[in-house]
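Let us practice reading a record.
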Amino acid sequence: QVQLVESGGGLVQAGGSLRLSCAASGSTFSIIANGWYRQAPGKQRELVAQINSSGGTNYASFVKGRFTISRDNAKNTVYLQMNSLKSEDTAVYYCNAVAVLRRYWGQGTRVTVSS
């Protein structure tokens, strides 16, 4: 089992920055990739960014150049640095961990961007 706890969400003005953190505990050795997803009100959950065990990254087109995903293996923590935030980035952001046999989700952290 893997437990994920997100933090770092909040209220920020458009153009501002936030850094989200996702701390993993439990069977972290089984994790092969991490991702950040988001879900805005009335919309489906969508992928924001992914990072694999080799450090390779993948981003949704709508965040390229603005968001950066990274990981600190020593701390079992994945980060999402969000810059140049827009009102449309307002959503609940969820951390995801992919293991061999299943996926894990955090409880989510809310990001609100005021225009």
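A brief commentary: The radius of gyration is 13 Å.
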